[in-house]
Amino acid sequence: METSLFFFSQLNMCEPKEKTFFKLIYGSGKEETSKEAKIRAKEKRNRLSLLVQKPEFHEDTLSSRSGQLAKETRISPEEAVIWGESFDKLLSHKDGLETFTRFLKTEFSEENIEFWIACEDFKKSKDPQQIIHKAKAIYEKFIQNDAPQEVNLDFHTKEIITRSITQPTLHSFDAAQSRVYQLMEQDSYTRFLKSDIYLDLIEGRPQRPTNLRRRSRSFTYNEFQDVKSDVAIWL
């Protein structure tokens, strides 16, 4: 008898730590097979089954897509057609601006429109300290070398902004904004009008999932030297 007890005690000592941990957390196998445990397990399964069957259970997983769909379907084909008349009409329409931004994200060039929006907001500043703070933020985010969302500007325009950033005015970014506007109008806007995003809207078709495309080569503003800067459009 003593030999048998010693044998079983040795087995318990050699028991893996994982199994011991499992027992501490969940209890012994004997307890789990008790009648009460079985009843509790059955009740949990029933509650889970009822929960999964409820429509509310699936609402969260579909909410983001439903919201996006509702946003897209509110744009009428007539509104979208107007965006094709000019780049200015596209940007002046809230839904047009949002749709164009979504298109630029598929091309990984959304920094251009974000810079343009930041400049528009900057020109509404009234407090001198606010002007300095916003100018510095725009410079660090979009203008300076290796900025996180650096826009493609020629050296001369960049140099003028760099020299004046310590004493900025509401017109400090006018030249840069005008050049980025020209780039988007002659390059991105042309592709936008041919994109599935835009064509689906003017045809009244449901929006398809957008595919991210490889960024096109970086155009330099030297390629648009024949286009005169028109700062007046921002005033």
TrEMBL record:
InterPro entries: RGS, RGS_sf, RGS_subdom1/3, RGS_subdomain_2. The keyword Manganese does not apply. Residues 86-202 form the RGS domain. The keyword Zinc-finger does not apply. GO terms for biological process: negative regulation of signal transduction. SMART domains: RGS. PROSITE patterns: RGS. It comes from the Eukaryota. This is Regulator of G-protein signaling 18. Keywords: Signal transduction inhibitor.
